[in-house]
Specification:
This protein is an all-alpha fold. It contains 7 helices and no strands. About 80% of the residues lie in helices and about 0% in strands. The radius of gyration is 25 Å and the shape is rod-shaped.
């Protein structure tokens, strides 16, 4: 039979792991938001460059006063292509940062669940479900971490998939990229994570 005395060491260990997980989540949420804020103007630039490339294709330079500038269209097209490649490169760098956030959260949540499973034999039901004035229940906190991990995993996959479709020579995809990127935002899920961090703030700060 499981007793509160048996549960106490396991609960203490689990609480320490949960504190670390929420601290990791809080730090990574800030990084995630910062990286996405960097991506927005880059996406806007991609759309603008695609529009300029399309405009260049629609203009017959040979019918304008610029016809005397040899190879002007070719040089302009090369510059636009270079600029597009540069922006795509920066977006790929930012995607690596998003992947690091996803990995950090996933690894931390995986570790706390592994610890929980290792200690299930010594944790009674009350120890897992009981809330206190300073701490939510273990079961609630595990669920919140799982929700956050799922959110960042799905968000990363969707954003990475979108970026993989983009090519410098496909103007339609580049023009629609900013709108499609913005459509991936999940403010409700981010607000839920922020609310969760508020709920556990006293718990994470206590030792």
């Amino acid at each position: 039979m499981k007793t509160p005395e048996m549960s106490k060491p396991a609960l203490t260990s689990l609480h320490q792991a949960l504190r670390k997980s929420f601290q990791t989540l809080e730090g990574n949420q800030k990084v995630w938001k910062s990286v996405l804020a960097d991506c927005s103007p880059l996406m806007g630039s991609l759309g603008n460059l695609a529009e300029q490339s399309r405009a260049l294709s629609n203009v017959q330079i040979s019918n304008t006063p610029l016809r005397d500038f040899t190879d002007l269209e070719e040089r302009l097209r090369f510059k636009l292509s270079q600029a597009t490649d540069t922006v795509l490169g920066k977006l790929n760098e930012n995607t690596s940062s998003l992947q690091s956030v996803r990995d950090s959260i996933s690894n931390q949540v995986s570790a706390v669940f592994q610890l929980y499973e290792q200690n299930t034999d010594s944790l009674d039901l009350l120890a897992v479900t009981e809330r206190s004035a300073t701490a939510p229940s273990v079961s609630d906190m595990l669920e919140w971490l799982q929700d956050a991990e799922r959110h960042y995993r799905q968000q990363f996959l969707r954003r990475k998939t979108l970026l993989l479709t983009l090519r410098a020579d496909d103007l339609s995809l580049l023009e629609s990229a900013p709108k499609r990127w913005n459509s991936l935002e999940c403010p409700g899920a981010e607000d839920h994570i922020t609310d969760t961090l508020c709920k556990v703030s006293f718990f994470t700060e206590s030792q």
